[in-house]
Structure formats: structure tokens, C-alpha cells
């Protein structure tokens, strides 16, 4: 497991989740969920904020997990959320280009987390040869 990659992924996820909680249009606009004039319907913002809180919570759990077991559990929740998002958004968004982009982003973040779980952390010898 590459805990550094997972913690950085968690921190990035938390920052994004908190940003979307504050400004749901950050997620709504690229998803095609804004009105024709670019405004964000209150009902759409109300539906996006819980997803953003979930992302923030998962990200914080990953970033501040006290040990590898907790980090692994938080990461598995993150992966399940990403795959669930991909499955839902693949059919729910209004236009094909938005669906494709949302699935790519969701699967991409999930894949990054999988890579962190499967990858090992590298230790540098800083020029020393180890035998």
C-alpha cells in the first residue's frame, strides 16, 4: 500500500468536497446541471451538497487515518463511492458528453485509489547500496 499517495488523494478529495459544499456550481456546471442561463437551481444545489459532504468526509478519513487498517477502510469507502457515482452518472446526466466526462473522472479517482492500495511505498537509499 502506498499510504502517501492515498493520504494525498484523500486530502485532494476533501478540499474538492469542501469547495463543492460551498459552491455546488463547481460540480453542477461540468455535469450539465445548471440552467440555460448558467444559474444553479436550489434543488440541484441541495442534491449536490450531500455528495460533496460525503467526499469531504471520505477524504478527511483517508488523510488522517491513524493506521494502515483505517486508511485501507477509508479508501475502500472512497472507491465504492467513486464506482457508485460512475454507475449513477452514466445514466442520469442530461447529455452524453457530460455522462462520459463524469464517468471518466469518477473512474479515474477510483483507479488512483486502487493504485494506492495495490502499490508499495518506495524507500530511497539516497546513494547507498543495500545488499
Helix count from the secondary structure assignment: 5
Q: What is the N-to-C order of secondary-structure elements (H for helix, E for strand)?
A: HHHHH
Distance between the termini: 23 Å
Shape: elongated
Q: What's the structural domain tally?
A: 1
How does this model look, in words?
- The protein has 131 residues and is mainly α.
- It has one domain (3-118).
- It is built from 5 helices and no strands.
- The longest helix has 25 residues, at 68-92.
- It is elongated, with a radius of gyration of 17 Å.
- The two termini are 23 Å apart.
Q: What would a concise description of this structure say?
A:
It contains 5 helices and no strands. The protein has 131 residues and is mostly helical. It has one domain.
Helix-strand layout with pairing:
Layout lengths: L2 H20 L2 H7 L10 H22 L4 H25 L3 H23 L13
Helix pairs in contact: 1-3, 1-5, 3-4, 4-5
Keywords:
131 residues; mainly alpha; 5 helices; 0% strand
